[in-house]
């Protein structure tokens, strides 16, 4: 979906719902309580979750773009020509050292999933999760127990890696010792640089991303959490569900289609701290005890 398509898809409820819908009508505005009731009563059984860095910052992982505290504002020590170069594939081929220095800080096992990640795991355990689409490369959904087949890691993952020369596949854990020592991992066959399967600028999205073509038309609820909805093509997915589908935003700010014009009756926005918003939904669902139990097991296992 291109940016112009996204624009058309997002013109909703100000008289039109663009590519994916029709007129607003006079329907009652939904609430978070309505969303919870529909999940609880099994009317929402195919839930798609979209998530960004805002679900992982409570675990201590810095995001990329927050002024002052984001990664891009704190990369001076890497002597980069510009901040984004650390994630550009051409620069990586020229000089992989800065990325692997940063990778030591970002490595998934340095952090623990939080309530938000375990909520997604609980959605899966209860049979409600159709798929999770995440912009994050931290792997915290996997650590919380969400099966890889339920994940579309749109910007790649540390869980697998590939030699940049001979294309030999590696498990992410095989790189851990080198990354923790601050050295560039090398292929055991050709001695080429092994790169985690993270999508750099200049690379194609993983093929699994295009699963959205079948997932989004099937969804009966879309939950969007912790994302600015600014990076394409991921952001356009917010407009790819059917016009009858409810969308729930749990986010620090109104973003994307939730920030434009009049609210749609099917759209609900819980604005503020993401973990607090998810916890409020879990309490309305009556799942808090089960979620606490999941989190306790996860803490003991880590």
TrEMBL record:
<feature type="binding site">
    <location>
        <begin position="63"/>
        <end position="65"/>
    </location>
    <ligand>
        <name>NAD(+)</name>
    </ligand>
</feature>
<feature type="binding site">
    <location>
        <position position="190"/>
    </location>
    <ligand>
        <name>Zn(2+)</name>
    </ligand>
</feature>
<feature type="binding site">
    <location>
        <position position="166"/>
    </location>
    <ligand>
        <name>Zn(2+)</name>
    </ligand>
</feature>
<feature type="binding site">
    <location>
        <begin position="53"/>
        <end position="57"/>
    </location>
    <ligand>
        <name>NAD(+)</name>
    </ligand>
</feature>
<dbReference type="InterPro" id="IPR050134">
    <property type="entry name" value="NAD-dep_sirtuin_deacylases"/>
</dbReference>
<keyword id="KW-0479">Metal-binding</keyword>
<feature type="binding site">
    <location>
        <begin position="251"/>
        <end position="253"/>
    </location>
    <ligand>
        <name>NAD(+)</name>
    </ligand>
</feature>
<dbReference type="InterPro" id="IPR029035">
    <property type="entry name" value="DHS-like_NAD/FAD-binding_dom"/>
</dbReference>
<dbReference type="InterPro" id="IPR026591">
    <property type="entry name" value="Sirtuin_cat_small_dom_sf"/>
</dbReference>
<dbReference type="InterPro" id="IPR017328">
    <property type="entry name" value="Sirtuin_class_I"/>
</dbReference>
<dbReference type="GO" id="GO:0008270">
    <property type="term" value="F:zinc ion binding"/>
</dbReference>
<feature type="active site" description="Proton acceptor">
    <location>
        <position position="155"/>
    </location>
</feature>
<dbReference type="GO" id="GO:0017136">
    <property type="term" value="F:histone deacetylase activity, NAD-dependent"/>
</dbReference>
<feature type="binding site">
    <location>
        <position position="187"/>
    </location>
    <ligand>
        <name>Zn(2+)</name>
    </ligand>
</feature>
<keyword id="KW-0520">NAD</keyword>
<comment type="similarity">
    <text>Belongs to the sirtuin family. Class I subfamily.</text>
</comment>
<dbReference type="GO" id="GO:0070403">
    <property type="term" value="F:NAD+ binding"/>
</dbReference>
<keyword id="KW-0808">Transferase</keyword>
<keyword id="KW-0862">Zinc</keyword>
<dbReference type="Pfam" id="PF02146">
    <property type="entry name" value="SIR2"/>
</dbReference>
<feature type="binding site">
    <location>
        <begin position="135"/>
        <end position="138"/>
    </location>
    <ligand>
        <name>NAD(+)</name>
    </ligand>
</feature>
<dbReference type="GO" id="GO:0005634">
    <property type="term" value="C:nucleus"/>
</dbReference>
<protein>
    <recommendedName>
        <fullName>NAD-dependent protein deacetylase</fullName>
        <ecNumber>2.3.1.286</ecNumber>
    </recommendedName>
</protein>
<feature type="binding site">
    <location>
        <position position="163"/>
    </location>
    <ligand>
        <name>Zn(2+)</name>
    </ligand>
</feature>
<dbReference type="InterPro" id="IPR026590">
    <property type="entry name" value="Ssirtuin_cat_dom"/>
</dbReference>
<feature type="binding site">
    <location>
        <begin position="227"/>
        <end position="228"/>
    </location>
    <ligand>
        <name>NAD(+)</name>
    </ligand>
</feature>
<dbReference type="InterPro" id="IPR003000">
    <property type="entry name" value="Sirtuin"/>
</dbReference>
<comment type="function">
    <text>NAD-dependent protein deacetylase.</text>
</comment>
<feature type="domain" description="Deacetylase sirtuin-type">
    <location>
        <begin position="25"/>
        <end position="288"/>
    </location>
</feature>
